[in-house]
């Protein structure tokens, strides 16, 4: 046994010595790509669980096989979460340990799981979290974005109009924004972001994290579509998209900026500023100047 494997064995032993109560649900994060990104505690709980509730039984049985495990699997997906929760509760009543996993990453994060956890808690049973990989946090940690806060959005609506309306609501937020996106929609989503946020904001396209073709690209939004279109491979795989948050704008608060941007979608500058002043109670002149800047920025984007 080399030094590394003896360290791993002794930590696995530590994991085994902790207490893992029966009649408990274990919410267990699994890898988002690289099969080695399971925690030792997660592995131990998979080994001692009486059953594993999972999104897709084929995926999870393959994952378990990689770790040399075979378990009873309970299909628990977005279409049967309530019924699955009832079956899980029966097992907890019988004194079992049940692990809850999704296809990849952390359950209940843009994945099924929250309803099961809610029902198990309501039935009075213990829920124990086993933390691990999540694509959102993985992307943020390697992005270099320096925003002090982040706001998790997950998947945006598929239709352009609804997507852009959802994005409008985020324009003034002073926090890095975190999105999940599928490869076939990545270009149109980034186009919508450009439309709503303008070309200057930094975007991070984090693709295939922890996998063979992992790539993290950061650039101004104005350059992102061209970058994606330069090579078809850049549009393949799974994506986390991050946008830097709004910078504080001197002399006006975030609410004024948000209201102004919504009104400018439909109204001329003067009218939008007057209405925004009425709605927010802020100074009309300051809002008017800001409205001119926003409109001018939008025109420059159109000309570019
Ligand atoms: N529960 C998962 C988590 O904790 O991250 C997310 C599940 S959600 C259904 C799947 C989406 O997460 C993908 O469409 C993609 O946007 C993102 N994702 C998952 N794995 C990824 C990876 N390895 N690289 C980049 N994005 C990933």
Automatic annotation (TrEMBL):
Protein name, as recorded: Ribosomal RNA small subunit methyltransferase I
Reaction catalysis annotation: cytidine(1402) in 16S rRNA + S-adenosyl-L-methionine = 2'-O-methylcytidine(1402) in 16S rRNA + S-adenosyl-L-homocysteine + H(+)
Entry GO MF terms: rRNA (cytosine-2'-O-)-methyltransferase activity
UniProt xrefs under HAMAP family: 16SrRNA_methyltr_I
Entry keywords, A to Z: Cytoplasm, Methyltransferase, rRNA processing, S-adenosyl-L-methionine, Transferase
Originating species: Herbaspirillum aquaticum
EC code: 2.1.1.198
Reported function: Catalyzes the 2'-O-methylation of the ribose of cytidine 1402 (C1402) in 16S rRNA.
Class of the enzyme per the UniProt entry, highest EC level: transferase
Pfam families assigned: RsmI_C, TP_methylase
Name of the gene this protein is made from: rsmI
Subcellular localization: Cytoplasm
Domain called Tetrapyrrole methylase: residue spans: 25-224
Main subcellular location of this protein, as a coarse class: cytoplasm
InterPro entries: 4pyrrol_Mease, 4pyrrol_Methylase_sf, 4pyrrole_Mease_sub1, 4pyrrole_Mease_sub2, rRNA_ssu_MeTfrase_I, RsmI_HTH, SAM_MeTrfase_RsmI_CS
Transferase recorded as keyword: yes
All residue ranges annotated as the RsmI HTH domain in the record: 251-294
One Gene Ontology CC term in the entry: cytoplasm
Family: Belongs to the methyltransferase superfamily. RsmI family.
Protein's UniProt keywords contain S-adenosyl-L-methionine: yes
């Amino acid at each position: 046994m080399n030094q590394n494997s003896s360290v791993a064995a002794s930590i696995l032993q530590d994991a085994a010595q902790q207490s893992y109560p029966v009649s408990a649900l274990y919410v267990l994060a699994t890898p988002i790509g690289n099969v080695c990104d399971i925690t030792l505690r997660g592995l131990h709980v998979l080994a001692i669980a009486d059953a594993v509730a999972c999104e897709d039984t084929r995926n999870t049985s393959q994952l378990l096989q990689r770790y040399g495990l075979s378990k009873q699997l309970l299909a628990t997906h977005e279409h049967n979460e309530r019924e699955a929760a009832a079956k899980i509760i029966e097992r907890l009543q019988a004194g079992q340990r049940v692990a809850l996993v999704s296809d990849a990453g952390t359950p209940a994060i843009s994945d099924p799981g929250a309803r099961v956890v809610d029902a198990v808690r309501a039935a009075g049973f213990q829920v124990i979290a086993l933390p691990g990989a999540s694509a959102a946090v993985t992307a943020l940690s390697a992005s270099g974005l320096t925003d002090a806060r982040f706001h998790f959005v997950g998947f945006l609506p598929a239709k352009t109009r609804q997507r852009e309306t959802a994005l409008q609501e985020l324009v003034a937020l002073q926090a890095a924004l975190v999105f999940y996106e599928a490869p076939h929609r990545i270009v149109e989503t980034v186009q919508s972001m450009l439309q709503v946020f303008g070309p200057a904001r930094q975007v991070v396209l984090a693709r295939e994290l922890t996998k063979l073709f992992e790539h993290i690209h950061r650039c101004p939004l104005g350059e992102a579509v061209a970058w994606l279109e330069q090579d078809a491979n850049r549009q393949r795989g799974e994506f986390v998209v991050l946008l830097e948050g709004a910078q504080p704008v001197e002399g006006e608060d975030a609410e004024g900026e948000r209201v102004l941007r919504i009104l400018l979608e439909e109204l001329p500058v003067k009218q939008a500023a007057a209405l925004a002043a009425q709605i927010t109670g802020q100074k009309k002149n300051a809002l008017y100047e800001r409205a001119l800047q926003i409109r001018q920025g939008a025109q420059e984007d159109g000309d570019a």
